Amino acid sequence: GTSDPYVKFKLGGKEVFRSKTIHKNLNPVWEEKAYILIDNPREPLYIKVFDYDFGLQDDFIGSAFLDLTSLELNRQTDVTLSLKDPHYPDHDLGSILLSVLLAPREEQREVVILNIFFQTQSLRLSDLHRKSQLWRGIVSVTLIEGRELKAMDANGLSDPYVKFRLGHQKYKSKIVPKTLNPQWREQFDFHLYEERGGIIDITVWDKDAGKKDDFIGR
């Protein structure tokens, strides 16, 4: 009597974001944030909700379109969309709530674009559990893209990747070959501990096969 829902977002037939799966829930709360680069605001954002089935084809729950031209620039807007099945347009398949901000893209050079979301620890842990989990929050990092990075290879390009470090925790992104404007779209979490500082060290590297990778910037 339940589902394991997740959501796909598409622009122009291309998937631009996929949410995490929330298991055994008909009223899921995702609280995920994504930056989506839009070339043509007249192209609607296509939203499809699925039920995850391990080892089987995922079930289609419903879909909706978001008309981006209806949004006011630089204003956070809560939007409720009714989910529909094109084959059964009269069926009520529930709804999905989005909080959307449409903003013009700033022209920035030689940068890596991140979205960092801080979430406090809300669970009441037992004393025993608390001793093994001495963190006071979660830092959720979304690595989005790089712009006009430095060329490190003879072909005038780089093979960039990014390394993150917070205390003893580390994360390394995938390598995007032969580009100065990489698109990563990766998300990961760090735990924020009481006894450690909150500085995230971010370094960008160029992958070189057979020799030491080139440092691009910190």
UniProtKB/TrEMBL annotation:
Gene Ontology CC terms, in alphabetical order: synaptic vesicle membrane
Keywords tagged on the record: Calcium, Metal-binding
Organism listed in the record: Baryphthengus martii
InterPro entries attached to this UniProt entry: C2_dom, C2_domain_sf
SMART domains tied to this protein: C2
Listed GO MF terms: calcium ion binding
Example of a GO biological process term: regulation of neurotransmitter secretion
Superkingdom, natural source: Eukaryota
Chain ranges of the C2 domain: 1-81, 119-218
Similarity annotation: Belongs to the MCTP family.
SUPFAM superfamilies per UniProt: C2 domain (Calcium/lipid-binding domain, CaLB)
Gene3D superfamilies from the UniProt entry: C2 domain
Protein's name according to its UniProt entry: MCTP1 protein
Source taxonomy: Eukaryota, Metazoa, Chordata, Craniata, Vertebrata
PANTHER family, per database record: C2 DOMAIN-CONTAINING PROTEIN, DYSFERLIN-RELATED
Record keyword Transit peptide present: no
PROSITE patterns documented for this protein: C2
